[in-house]
Write a structure and sequence with these properties.
alpha/beta
Amino acid sequence: MIRFGLDRLLAEPELRRPLAGRRVALLAHPASVTRDLVHAADALAALPEVRLTALFGPQHGARGDKQDNMVESPDEFDARLGIPVFSLYGAVRRPTPAMMDTFDVLLVDLQDLGCRVYTYLTTLRYVLEAAAAHGKSVWVLDRPNPLGRGVEGGLLQPGWESFVGAGSLPMRHGLTLGEAGRWFIATLGLDLDYRVVSLEGWDPDAAPSYGWPLGERTWINPSPNAPTPWMARCYPGTVLIEGTTLSEGRGTTRPLEGFGAPWIDPWRLLAEMETLAPQWLAGCRLRPFFFEPTFHKYAGERCGGIMIHVEDPAHYDPRRFRPWRLVALTLKALRRLHPDRPLWHADPYEYEYERLAIDLIDGGPRLRQWIEDEAAAPADLDAMIEPEERAWAEIRAPFLL
């Protein structure tokens, strides 16, 4: 049976003994729950030796109520627990000195998605940097990477760091959040008391879970548009759609598993993708579908598109499913089919107002340039990216727990 870091901390008094007499803060969101679905804040506050003095919330808020990107959460006060709740996605994204003064040890209990763009990874970096500067301790209560150990995508390029690009990782990095903290500390040269309450019994290569313990643990949205483990499997590819004029399915019941636009013929698109790179369509099932978003892009308009299915063990193969390449191929096919259609949206994205969102998301302009280059083939993208994927697998090895 798998045990998450939070459950181990609650069950093993010797693990939490160093917390006695110290002020403890918690960085959490709605998925920060025990096996019995008790929120970490309530479970920790019930322990007589733990003095909980503050809560911190990442993007979407400590309560997970904020729907979209660049929708901020305010600081507030939790009257039930009698402690302040500080937003790290509001007036600030890095903790202030006043916030840091409220605790001695910060417990980080965030369910991550295993994708560089998911901003909890960046928030972890920011709190580690602040803790090093202020002499505070950080403990990560580890949780599974629902994508397992798979690696895909090029490394973020120098100068392309942003709130959706915390460091030179690939899109699908294969680290737990606790392991990512170890990598940040080594890469940034940080000096702080850092501990990981690690997972027990997690086998990221075991079927049918391949990362998330299906049948053992309840999936709770770590953000509003992450409703299923299937979304997590697709996300390293479908997040690219956020930088385009296509709908990524926000405003539907299956966001970031399917995508489309009013001008797309799904059958024609799939045929073009099959012609270009059939090997990039493996490990899943693709279904032509139509949808009408209730909000966000194309609200109230009928869109044609593709749904990616990875929920059926008979169809899903994590060794062959490569969502980043799949969506890259989709955009390449659309550019060939509709050369005059605007494909890249130029709206602000995660507090970046000058650079294109697609470049921020992918960590540089290389993918967009490959898509726009009529002469560039799928083999050219593989030739550029595969050496970086192999290099990352070696770079991360010392940090795996």
